[in-house]
Design brief:
The structure is a single chain. With 329 residues, this protein is mostly helical. It has 2 domains: 123 residues, Cytochrome Bc1 Complex, Chain D, domain 2, CATH 1.10.760; 154 residues, Orthogonal Bundle (Cytochrome Bc1 Complex, Chain D, domain 2), CATH 1.10.760.10. It has 12 helices and no strands. Helix 2 packs across helix 5, helix 6 runs antiparallel to helix 7 and helix 8 packs across helix 12. The N and C termini lie far apart (96 Å). The mean pLDDT is 92. It binds heme C (2 copies). One heme C binds next to helix 6, helix 7, helix 8, helix 9 and helix 11.
């Protein structure tokens, strides 16, 4: 067949309409618009938050759908078309510079979002997400409401759980340091309470711990570990002042397992996030040792050798002693 200008135009149009048919018309006909079991309508605040999300280009960095092969990234739920019923536009996004947000509701309490939206570096020191403080308090509240609705009914359950635990965490915080420590440790299973840190507190381990502290913790717990980081004014209860934990050492000279458990799981209802998806086991032990040595002046590392570098000496041979009651008054 000879190529003529007419044939070129006709062929081009054929290709165009074939693509429209495959990518627009077939999906439009076959798309299931029945709401899924987690779907619920937005409130007015959430709808305003959705608008802000669209207008401010959050979708350039965040996606809102989870694919089958994302299970191994710790996904909560694979996206179903009914999750998006009635959303205009449904902002699926394609970029994942930041995490997927389709199940972000209830991951963090509202106060964490207030700190994070004001300046993401407050809660995550190396974040590249822009600050949204310029949007003003009301807009940030709407944006938070929208994010807390991500995940529909599943998210509502998580949000309610955060709110319930927040009451308990606040009540404990307001009852003073001893009651607060008792409450915090009361949530930790008994086997973790007498567990020493199995990693030695060598300068190399502490150096790694310091780096992790600076990358993940410092703007909440503060450079002195006293809880006075830049995020502190936004958080209720505020980040823990680690130096208060010297009181704990009077009764129980083990702290490694307690730190590990709290850092791994986070503390529901407070701004303390879980790190089990981001930090491998060794990193959590290293940062635990760093907290203990830097802010408590103590470590229980290698009290009992646990199969690694068993030749290390117990710490009291190297000058670490648990404080006596009169030292912490
Ligand atoms: C330039 C890219 C970028 C843009 C634009 C951006 N983010 Fe982010 N976002 C990130 C990165 C990276 C993270 C992970 C680090 C952190 O927590 O800040 C993140 C984290 C988050 C988280 C916390 C997720 C979690 O569970 O820890 C939320 C919520 C969030 N962003 C919402 C938004 C909203 C809403 C907007 C628009 C107003 C937005 N982001 C715009 C990059 C971006
Ligand atoms: C967004 C702020 C924030 C970040 C980031 C954060 N924390 Fe926390 N952390 C808190 C809050 C809030 C509490 C609970 C305070 C309370 O209930 O009194 C807490 C509690 C803790 C506890 C509990 C101690 C105990 O004895 O029960 C540990 C351990 C801890 N944080 C370590 C870390 C480490 C390590 C990092 C970084 C890898 C980190 N935190 C990052 C806010 C934060």
């Amino acid at each position: 067949m000879k190529m003529t200008p007419l044939l070129l135009v006709f062929g081009g149009l054929m290709v165009f309409w074939a693509s429209v048919f495959a990518m627009v018309i077939i999906p439009a006909i076959t798309l299931d618009r029945t709401p899924s079991e987690i779907w619920r309508p937005w409130t007015e605040k959430e709808a305003k938050g959705h608008d802000l999300y669209v207008k401010n280009g959050c979708s350039y960095c965040h996606s809102q759908f989870i694919r089958n092969f994302d299970w191994d990234l710790g996904a909560e739920r694979i996206a179903a078309s009914g999750d998006y019923a009635g959303q205009t536009p449904a902002i699926l996004g394609t970029e994942r510079t930041g995490p997927d947000l389709s199940q972000a509701g209830g991951e963090h309490p509202d106060d964490w979002h207030a700190a994070h939206f004001t300046n993401p570096r407050f809660t995550r020191p190396e974040s590249l997400m822009p600050s949204w403080e310029f949007l003003g308090k009301e807009n940030l509240e709407n944006l938070t409401a929208y994010i807390q609705a991500e995940g529909g009914r599943d998210a509502d359950f998580r949000v309610a759980r955060q709110q319930e635990w927040k009451q308990a965490a606040l009540a404990a915080y307001q009852s003073g340091p001893d009651a607060n420590i008792q409450w915090l440790h009361g949530q930790i299973p008994a086997v973790w309470q007498p567990m020493p840190n199995p990693y030695p507190a060598t300068p190399a381990d502490l150096g790694r711990g310091k780096k992790i502290y600076q990358q993940f913790c410092i703007h909440c717990h503060g450079s002195m570990g006293d809880g006075n980081g830049a995020a502190a004014p936004y958080l209720q209860p505020p980040p823990l002042n680690f130096t208060l934990l010297r009181r704990h050492l009077v009764e129980n000279r083990y702290i490694g397992g307690i730190f590990y458990y709290q850092i791994m799981n986070g503390i529901t209802g407070t701004g303390m996030p879980y790190f089990k998806r981001e930090l491998e086991s060794e990193k959590i032990w290293d940062v635990s040792n760093y907290l203990a040595v830097m802010f408590l002046g103590y470590t229980d590392a290698n009290l009992e050798p646990r199969g690694i570098e068993a030749s290390y000496e117990p710490p009291w041979k190297n000058g670490y002693e648990a404080p006596a009651a009169e030292d912490v008054k």
